Amino acid sequence: MIIEALIGFTFLAALVVMLAPDEYAGRLAFGLSLLPVVGSLYMWSQFDATGNALLEGGSLAFETQVPWLTAAGYQIQWFVGVDGISLPLIVLATVLSSLAILSAWTPIDSRQSQFFGLMLFMEANLLGVFTALDFFLWFVFWEAVLVPMYFLIAIWGGPRRKYAAIKFFVYTNIASLIMFIGFMALVFNLDVNTFGLPAVAVALRSGGLSGAFGLSPTALKTAAFAAMFLGFAVKVPVVPFHTWLPDAHVEAPTPASVMLAGVLLKMGTYALLRFNFTMLPDVATQYAGVIAIFAVVSVIYGALLALAQQDLKRIVAYSSVSSMGYVILGLVAYTQLGVGGATFQMVAHGLISGLMFMAVGVIYNVTHTRMVGDMSGMADRMPVTVGILVAGAFGYMGLPLMAGFAAEYFIFQGAFASSVIPVAPLFTAVAMFGIVIVAGYLLLAMQRTLFGPFRLETDYEVTRAELHDTLPLMVLLLCTIALGVAPDIFFTMIKEAVTPILAIGGGA
Amino acid sequence: MVPAEWYLILAAAVFCIGVFGLLTRQNALLFLMSVELMLNAANINLAAFSYYWGNVTGQTFGLFVMALAAAEVAVGIGIILVLYRNFSAVDVTDATTMRW
Amino acid sequence: MVVYPDWAALAPALALAVTGLVLLLIDSVDPDDSRPGLLAGTAVVGTLVSLGYAGWFLASGTGQVDGGTGAISLYRDALVVDGMALFFQAVFAVVTALVCIASYDYLKERAYQAEFYSLVMFAATGMAVMATANSLATAFIALELASLPSYALVAFLKHNRGSVEASLKYFLIGALSSAVFAFGISLVYAATGSLLLADVASALSALDGGLTGVAAIGVLMVAGGFAFKTASVPFHFWAPEAYEGAPAPISAFLSSASKAAGFAVLFRVFTTAFPLDAAGVDWMLLFQVLAVVTMTLGNFAAATQETVKRMLAYSSIGHAGYALIGLAAWSGGAPGSVENGAVLGASMAHLLVYGFMNTGAFLFVALAEQWDVGRTFEDYAGLGSRAPMASVAMTVFMFSLAGVPPFGGFFSKLFLFAGAVDAGFWWLAAVGVVNSTLSLYYYSRVVKALWVDDPVGEFELGGTPTGLYVAVVFAAVGTLLLLPGFAPVIETAQSVAAALVP
Where are the transmembrane segments (chain A) (predicted)? Predict the structure, then answer.
């Protein structure tokens, strides 16, 4: 029941905040958002699932399964539960939502109650996405996440917010539709009578698919895999489907960017792992080379684009594309370290990119510019913020003892040893080169904006940020370091959950 | 006895005259008359085939159609009246404040 | 146990008719419209009684096959009360109730209120009878009973050129289509010698060659008559005009209840009276073509509109196209079999959900007309911060109409398309999905205007019309509840649809 309680409470909190007066909305929302954090930590402490939620031999934690309705002979149900893959993401979603709400106190200065209400509404749906184990339930939450994000960008965003919001909405919606059709094509030709993901996954892995639409079962599988991959790739985003991301990030208000980069992108990789790589391992391994090319291109191209940017937020946005490329590479490696590392990277990148966006946001609150050339020597005036920003940047570069290092190390080791990707060492080596570029552009941008003599043309005194602005940064930094020092606090359960996926996928 | 097909042809002819009137006339009243013709074409069929099949279903329904036609004309005349008050014309092509 | 007479099964329709008469009585006692609350209250109570009866009968199994009395035939089979009739009567009652609540504010300062409500009641009675019509004669008469008051209601603002023009066009096309319908019936009668649906079906099956052509033309013309009522191609021209010009509550009434009534009788007549293999015309193909053309035309036209009401009008045509899938992908399987009900039931459930969300959307437009904010998308800019409750409701309607997941419209469309795929018409579902995606574009324009765009100038909202607010919020709650609560709706709809062909 705890999952229902969490989701229900967050929806309720969203409603309460929507109706609250603007002056108190931020504080109220932050207070209310602490309860899901506590709840998710409690879930963590009581976590007792084994194996993968979708596959045989797995057992779920906090499972509830209630029939909802029957569509065309298929059972739709309220089916939620948690395994080692979803729990870290749930903790990430609650913690990051709470901190994003805190970080929104300063920049959001109009229609606060609507803003914070939408943030909580989004959090509730995110919790649903990561816990739902029935396709329809999952899809409902998946789509419902888009609606608040659309408004967050469209109402509180930058000058080109309407364009960015529409682009985001249309891109992701069309992608969802393609994915939806792909999955439906699978289920309708499968010998199951439910939309429950575990049943579908088991049936697919045991080869219970019949051909349709003039396609053989294998061709149908491949087509469905392609459709779902395309659908999720837009969300991740994988180059060349990434063009909505920089627009959305640049225009979105900082707290929304934090959620977008920190959690919403992970929906894409989470879904890829749950659907494509868990349900159709044979197709995934067959086309591993192609997918690996997508991954590596994302890594390198994203990094190169970041290198060319002048806007701090754009730099972080493009480097997200690069980081998510690592996730794809880890997933397609089909080794325990690769897939596990990819899952770990989802959490690590969520924390670090959240940290980076927030830090850039704090600086922007004061300077009202994000252009690299417009300022320098910020370290002089905002030592704490800048210090954390630099630490976060090093986390991004994969400094040992930070979460990013652990994640990337796992991924590279996993990908290097992959027996699925052709010429795996080459791909890994090329992807590792991405880190060098990351280090290059981050150091360059840091040096130009943060250090040197202070220069910023304003008619007011640039001062330190408020405590409630820097507090979330500190918390995130601490989490990043904690995960870097002791990755096992998540990695053990992740390993446990990904191992069954590898059974058909080859590798070890 | 007149063969049944002839009634069908007669009814179809009357119906077509009605459709023709509908398509060519712009006067709302003539439009109404054309619709009446079409309804009466249906009545011809109903009466004729009531006899042909030897039951009174058709004739009874024919009476209903007449009554409804009268009701329809009553409402229609009312609408045409307010049309005239608003547009000072009973030409159906005059009322074009909205796109057609 | 008390044994009720058979005619008591008509209670949902009778309640509406009696309410209409009571309203006229009240008006003759107190003719100066000084008690708008009493009139609106009476109308609402009447519709709720009708809804209560329909719901009670549905729940207790009256007229239904499973655990019930079986279909109740009345007046020598001219009327039949079965699950489908009750289901649709519930839809009409809900929509009519919402419209009556909303009309309280809309009519406040106007004359002829009692006439307004009683005309609405009589039209609703006509619809309720349409749902029970078991003979082509009663179908025709009920259809006229629903239509004639509607013509007058559209022209209710008789000094408003738009209203009168809308009424004229609605009336002209209505008269034309009813003539076509009557002629079609006369041809079917010519071929079969009966007007009762069951007898027509058996006579068609035993038809000798000579009259097949006559019957086929008759079937086509009957389909034309229904196309008018459901605002489907080719008799859809009136819809945008009538919905745009009519008072907004009436637009809601026509586009939700009247359309559903058209579908009720369409479903019954085609599935029971015109057997697929004997009707002389492949009406499934006909409805496939009509469904595709109707939804595509409606959606594309809606996408190019500048005024919200007209956009809703075209979107209503689009939704008629979706609902037609119910017949277009009908399995025509063995009588009483479950698959007969699958897609037809989904179509009925869609009409119910549509009743909530579309009525709500038109009532929001009524609210905007009441505030005098203007008609175009741009005029709605900034309403979100001025009237947040109503705007949230409108957002729900828009997303639900588009079929976006967290709302009721998602499931109804899903079942409809899934049913079509299941019946082997995946291309029909594909066209529907593409259209739905397109529709998101124009629906989201309203949402964008409400919340995102900055208002053009300063304006004040004149007053808070309580009745309209209540109706809009109630419709929104209904739309939302139909997501978790979709299971009983679809189960009822599919089982009563399966029982349609005994």
Answer: 85-108, 139-156, 168-189, 222-244, 256-275, 287-309, 315-334, 346-366, 386-411, 423-444, 471-491
